[in-house]
Amino acid sequence: MRLAPVFLGSLARRRLATLFSLAAIILGVALGMAVQAVHEAALGEFGRGLRALSGEADLQVVGPRGGFAEEVYAVVAGRPEVAQASPVLELEVKLAGRDETLQLLGVDVFTLARVTPALLPRPAGTAGRFAVLAEDSVFLSSAAQAALATRIGEHVEFQSGTASAGFRVAGDIPGADDSRQLAVMDIAVAQSAFARLGKLTRIDLRLAEGVAPAAARAQLQAALPAGVLVEVPEAAADQAANLSRAYRVNLTMLAAIALLTGGFLVFSAQALSVVRRRTEFAFLRALGLARRSLFAWLLAEGAAVGLAGGVLGVLLGHGLAWGALELLGGDLGAGYFSGLAPTLVFQPEAAAIYVALGLLSGVAGAWLPAREAATVSPAQALKAGDEAALAGGHGHPWLGLGLLAASVAACAIPPHDGLPVGGYLAVAFLLAGSVLLLPKLAAGVARLLPGGRGPVPSRLAAARLGAAPGHAVVAAAGVLTSVALAAAMAIMVASFRDSVDQWLGQILPADLYLRAGRAQTSAYLDEALQARISAVPGVDRSSFTRHESLRIGVGKPPVALIARPLAADGSDLPLVGAVRPGDLPQVWISEAMHDLHGWRIGQTVTLPLAGRAVELHVAGMWRDYSRQTGAIMIDLDDYRRITGDRLVNDAAIELAPGAVADQVAAALTALAGPGAMEIARPGEIRAISLRIFDRTFAVTYLLEAVAVVIGLAGVAASFAALAAARRREFGMLRHLGLTRRQIGWMLALEGALAAGVGVLAGLLAGGAIGLVLIEVVNRQSFHWSMDLHVPWGSLALFAVSLVALAALAAVLAGRQAMRQDAVLAVREDW
Question: Which of 15, 61, 406, 736 has a Cα-to-Cα distance from 24 of 20 to 30 A?
Fold first, then answer.
């Protein structure tokens, strides 16, 4: 007997339930695949760019963003471990009067050819052989020429400070990647044009033959000043991967919850299908079909849905990845790989893994219903009225409570390799424990309902909820997971957004903000311009800020150093925790410095400033939402006294009483060339920041909406199958005098109660998961805290709307079963 049409054909006969189960699995697989594909494409492009820039270098000497003394080059180049050293001055430059920025490298062409030949500039035919050394020459990659709408032979002007420096495009860079926007010029010219005399930012090293990189690294590091480190060329790519990994993994975890919802919908569909087809299975068993074969064929049904969902999800995921790269870039809106143009590449191994996850989701969802069907005897299954038995029973309350307790313990697990593994386990335990407690919750709700009073349909609906809690599990399991996901993300995003909004209000107290330009390594305000800014009519007070980055650990990303005027007690910062003043110059650290580097309030730390180690006192900790790798705040006077650096990047302007902001802004803008300075009001900065925030979370908003729609669709599919399985019950109720309208009202109440149980459990689970996301996942992933903000109004409206829609879906799903003639519906019992 050929059984494939009997079992696999049933998927086509119950198209609605199959479709929604398939859609949920497709969604989960597609989102996970898209995040994976986009991230791998971005990392691949980032890595290719770094390899092109580092060429054949074995090691790199790197330092702070502002650079280090070029005397280090002589020290390194003279070491016996080094065969060739190539100095580099790397800057981000902006075209004068325009917003575009590009990477500029000042290089020594004589050493470049032996270390990084791909960066060798090629003079145009009319430029001459020595154009590379000319004081007005710059060489642009093909991508830079296209982006800047510039051709060889034309002139370009780059912003230097608030002035401009003019150059002639003397040729191109044939070895540069086609998508890399890059400029190259002689290093002496770059140092002079951009006020970096005597400064380098990197030295690329080729080691002598037979020298081990690890040994050379240790020996070279001992000869270098504080804050200058020896790294492998791959370090920047590894740091970028680590920096963006938490964001990618968190999105993947959201996709996994969508996949879990798909598994619950497969469970619901299979459980209801088993109830509806019990007589069919009984006949097959009577004809000789073994329990094991029945179990295997029912698993095959779930596997077919999972496999199809996995394959279609991989295809959709690549489509979503292509769209995301076009709209959001390689960072999915988070800003990790801005400026790159990644190329999507199909990865067979990753695709196979996600197809297997879809298959596993389908099999896992079908497992329990298949086991239930295989254990029922044929005689019992042939008895009329046995449809009430349904997988789920009265649940496993002790196991559920144990999982909830385990979720609390999991929150205490420290991060592993920068990932909040304990937080993910806690989320999984909370979801699983909540589902296992659903039958008990349903029975508890039923006991609270007035069973002996009220209209007959409401009494019947309440009685069914208490007598058959397994039905509540089937109808509400998908609702619980989708509502828990939506509620948790709503609480986390609302808390995060509210905290960011408050933080922006604390760090933007001035009336106007001015900056020299987006390219902080080449745009600055000198002392003369600072004095002229302070003297502009209408300016009551101006405070200036210097931005720098420091290297304080091998293999770790740079740390931001921010020098600005600070109150002695830190009252002008969004502080977290106590303040402990000290005798040494004070610094204020972000939460990431505590998490990543172990710095503590009251501790004495050593910072590499101006090439020497300086002892400083950690006076307090402040909340920073803009720098994930850590930031250190120091008073501007202390910074200038230690480093001698008098340049700044930004200015905060407080207006005098009666001054007009627009007039003062116009006067400030006139102090420099057109487009050299950018001026904004706090409200504008806040609006832009929140818009970037919303763009970053666009993927999660979409996932929330789709998860809710799928959960609601699961209710409709569940009640459609339940109504079909209960057609004899409806016929008996019609014989007892109930009208179709009363049966419809009963179904609406059953749908509302089942969905209400799922929504209630989902909100409770979502609230707990939201706390885990805020206190564990976000803190361990991104190293910042936030204040809890629950959007009560939105959650209440969402819950009421979902219950009402579930009631409507239950009525619409049961209409076909209610249309059947009452006599025909019960004739099987005669």
Answer: 406
726 contacts 820 by C-beta, under 8 angstroms: no
- Exposure string (b/e) for 656-680, b if CB count within 10 Å is 16 or more? eeebeeeebbeebbebbeebbbebb
Is residue 593 over pLDDT 80?
A: yes
In three-state secondary structure terms, 135 is: coil
What whole-number distance in Å separates Cα of residue 150 and Cα of residue 273? 67
Every domain of the chain and the residues it spans: 1-39+233-364, 56-229, 388-508+687-830, 512-680
For 338, residues 6+ apart whose C-beta sits below 8 A from its C-beta are: 329, 331
Could you give the CA distance from residue 88 to residue 80 in angstroms, rounded to a whole number?
21
Per-residue pLDDT reduced to its tens digit, 518-571 = 777 788 899 999 999 999 999 999 999 999 999 888 778 889 999 999 999 999
Alpha helices in 564-697 (DSSP H): 591-597, 636-643, 661-669, 682-696
What pLDDT, in 10s, does the model give residues 517-532? Answer: 777 778 889 999 999 9
Give me the residues paired with residue 93 across strands: 102
Q: Which amino acid is at 258?
A: A
The two counts, helices (H) then strands (E), for the chain are: 28, 21
pLDDT at res. 98 = 75
How far apart CA 57 and CA 749 sit, in angstroms, is: 72
Distance of alpha carbon 524 from alpha carbon 61, whole angstroms:
25
pLDDT confidence bin for 228, thresholds 50/70/90: very high
C-beta separation of 459 from 666 below 8 A: no
CA 243 to chain centre: 11
Mean pLDDT, all residues of the chain: 81
